[in-house]
Amino acid sequence: MNNTEPTVLPDADLLALSVIWEHRRQRQAAGVKILLLPFVPCPTCGAPVDEVIIGPQDQATFLQVVTMQPCGHRHTVSEDALLRLQEHVGEMLTDIEDADRRDEGASVEAIVREAHDRTTPDNPPTSEDAPDNPPGSTREQLPDDVLALLSHRTYLSTACETARLLDGAIIRNPGRADLPGHRDRLHQRCRRNQKFTGVACSCPCHPTPP
Ligand SMILES: [Zn+2]
Ligand SMILES: [Zn+2]
Ligand SMILES: [Zn+2]
Fold first, then answer.
1. How do residues 139-157 score in pLDDT, each as one tens digit?
2. Vertex 124, ends 43 and 151: CA angle to 5°?
3. CA distance linking residue 49 with residue 43, whole number of Å
4. Most buried residue, 3, 90, 97, 146, by CB count within 10 Å?
5. How many helices and strands, by DSSP H and E, does the chain display?
């Protein structure tokens, strides 16, 4: 066991770890015990990681602690960082599932590279909440004459769509008291308008305009 002070897990490492961890969890839940994605090496010492232990909270900072095994290095993760990366995790998992379906599998190197790209400011993420594209921004919106050519479909934002998936998870996992909080935060994070078309999110969580 390593007793040094935990270090903050950088966003790129946290994103790669979250994607791999969730992908392994889903596969194990589906009964697949072979060909699980390996974890990335420990960000502190570079040692191979066999197991990642999540929790308990750090007593000084109340941050979640993630411990790499066998080296025992501890890293802290803030809820802000998790929320900031949540959409990237979802998008990357969807891509990996698509690759799995095509039997292409996913390589850890590709996940690490993408996690780095998505979290490096010089290389803005393509997600809906890229820093230069705040909620309400029309920067990426298509010209009006192009919009007029589109047949409008109802739009549900990624945040609200994921929140509604969580409703199902809440019903299936009544013991998980943390889930409603995640759901509510996702609804709050909705940017309200589709970034390319400006169409308003149809989720019932938003008050209907007068
Ligand atoms: Zn280590
Ligand atoms: Zn919503
Ligand atoms: Zn919404």
1. 777 777 777 777 666 788 8
2. 130
3. 10
4. 90
5. 6, 4
| Distance of alpha carbon 153 from the chain centroid | 26
The alpha carbon of 113 and the centre of ligand 3 are apart by a number of angstroms equal to 30
The token pair at 170 is 């809440």
Q: Return the domain boundaries, the chain.
A: 7-119, 129-210
pLDDT at 129 over 60: no
Do the beta carbons of residue 81 and residue 18 sit within 8 Å? no
d(Cα 8, Cα 136) in Å, to the nearest integer? 32
Of all ligands present, the nearest one to the C-alpha of 45 is 1
* Contacts by 164-169, CB closer than 8 A, 24 or more apart: 164/203
pLDDT in tens, 37-59: 899 999 999 999 999 998 787 77
Closest CA to 5 of 81, 73, 77: 73
Query: pTM of the prediction?
Result: 0.56
CA of 157 to the centre of ligand 3 (A): 5
- Report the separation in Å between the CA atom of 55 and the middle of ligand 1, taken as the mean of its atom positions: 16
